[in-house]
Design brief:
Layout (H helix, E strand, L loop, with lengths): L15 H7 L12 E2 L6 E2 L5 H18 L7 H15 L10 E5 L6 E3 L4 E5 H6 L3 H16 L2 H7 L12 H7 L1 H9 L14 H18 L4 H16 L1 H4 L9 H13 L12 H7 L1 H4 L2 H15 L3 H14 L4 H13 L3 H14 L5 H12 L3 H14 L4 H13 L3 H14 L4 H12 L5
Parallel strand pairs: 3-5
Antiparallel strand pairs: 1-2, 4-5
Bound molecules: zinc ion.
Length: 445
């Protein structure tokens, strides 16, 4: 690979290898700084300060939320989950952290936490829960990870020596390897090296803390049992939803048994606390009207991951018949088209997605990518510019902006973007490409 294949203005269509190269992933390093565990009170080898945890969270979580199709536009639902989470957080060991709880538009079943307290659950998992106590258990578990400082611990042990920004690993972490491979071809982004790295002991500790916090908040321990039972049962009832996830949350049988045992021992006196099923059902009623469409999307996403693109398209079509303005459905359909190199159709769906959710960034990346493929560099540039305004900090965007400028023969602007890119990323094919160009243009000797 000599970095010369790609283009300014002329013909050569990309080969598959070029395509893979072009879309390859870039990584950025992280800084590390010592501490007493807020949970156990014991000294821990933690080289990451609280300030840094918050900083890492701020830099990374918006990219993950966007990879999950943004926060739901249903403000009432979002507020409900945030209020429920904050009530539980107030009973945690680190109540001062800047917690936020949100629902993201992804359909796969999961929840996750960033080290500064940004916590999200997918609409897929909300549909699988039966009452508010289960929701409190779920959020309590994620709070457990934040409070026991699991991410900071992992980073300090060198398990997470670098987090990937603008890369592959989030999708591997949350959706499985094939999807990650596919998505990286589109230069899609995420931050999930931070997410997929909990040990089994971390999971046990988060469960124990989650139970503690939710019961102290006033929820019956049955909520944790219900959550664990759901996770355990999901693999049988709805394989399409579960295949995509929970590389991050294994050992569900053990976790279920532990919840039952602690509920009967340590938390016996709390057994009559309420579960608030009715309140949960009221607050999720609107979401549950999307159930049929979301199931179609879950199946479609699985088909897409298995590279059965025709089948996937059928399911996305069915979903969009039910909910024509569903951002996730539109983005998935666009993605599916792009995987098949149907760029024009991909653009149509991406632009529709932009219309229904103009503040969400992912659709701009997709159309920008597709417009580069169709050599509409000016339009591609505008898409990436909008993307960067909405979601700064993705190195890929900067590279693509440079690439689009180069396509328009704007050498000075292209050089400018490539230099910005190289300040963030010094390794990989894109960095080599940018460096090569800058050398050719006389910016470097
Ligand atoms: Zn966990």
């Amino acid at each position: 690979m000599n970095g010369e294949l790609l283009v300014t203005g002329e013909k050569h269509p990309m080969t598959r290898r070029d395509f893979l190269w072009f879309m390859s992933v870039s990584a950025a390093g992280f800084m590390a700084g010592c501490a007493t565990s807020p949970v156990t009170g014991r000294r821990q080898l933690i080289l990451v300060s609280e300030e840094q945890e918050i900083q890492i969270d701020k830099q990374n979580s918006p990219h993950q939320f966007s990879a999950d199709y943004g926060v739901v536009q249903d403000e009432a639902l979002n507020r409900y989950v945030d209020q429920t989470g904050k009530a539980v957080a107030a009973r945690s060991h680190r109540p001062h952290m800047p917690y936020s709880f949100r629902v993201v538009n992804a359909n796969y079943v999961n929840a996750y936490a960033f080290p500064g307290g940004s916590i999200a659950c997918t609409r897929g998992i909300l549909l699988s829960l039966d009452n508010e106590a289960e929701l409190a258990a779920l959020l309590g578990h994620e709070l457990g990870h934040v409070n026991a400082r699991h991410t900071a611990q992992q980073m300090s042990k060198g398990i997470l020596t670098q987090a990937v920004v603008g890369g592959l690993s989030v999708l591997v972490g949350t959706r499985g390897a094939t999807y990650g491979e596919l998505a990286s071809q589109l230069g899609m982004i995420g931050a999930g090296a931070l997410l997929a790295s909990y040990s089994r002991d971390n999971e046990r500790e988060a469960d124990a803390l989650g139970m503690e916090y939710m019961v102290q908040t006033g929820y019956g321990p049955q909520g944790m049992i219900g959550l664990m039972d759901m996770l355990r049962g999901l693999s049988k009832r709805k394989p399409s939803a579960i295949e995509l996830m929970f590389a991050t949350h294994p050992m569900s049988d053990e976790r279920y048994r532990t919840a039952v045992e602690t509920a009967q021992s340590e938390y016996k006196s709390a057994e009559n606390l309420r579960l608030y099923r009715e309140r949960y059902m009221d607050n999720t009623a609107k979401l549950r009207t999307l159930n049929g469409a979301i199931e179609e999307m879950q199946i479609g996403e699985r088909e897409m991951m298995q590279k059965k693109f025709d089948n996937a398209e059928d399911h996305f079509d069915e979903a969009l018949k039910l909910v024509p303005n569903d951002y996730t459905g539109l983005v998935m359909m666009s993605t599916c088209k792009l995987f098949q190199k149907k760029y024009k159709e991909g653009i149509t769906y991406a632009e529709k997605a932009q219309q229904v959710y103009p503040e969400e960034a992912q659709a701009y990346h997709l159309s920008g990518f597709a417009k580069i493929q169709t050599r509409d560099f000016e339009a591609a540039y505008q898409e990436f510019k909008t993307y960067e305004k909405l979601l700064p900090g993705n190195a890929n965007t900067i590279f693509f902006k440079g690439y689009a400028q180069e396509g328009m023969q704007h050498i000075e602007q292209a050089a400018n973007e490539y230099q910005r890119y190289l300040q963030l990323v010094q390794q990989g094919d894109k960095a080599r490409y940018a460096y090569q160009r800058l050398k050719e243009w006389g910016y470097y000797k």
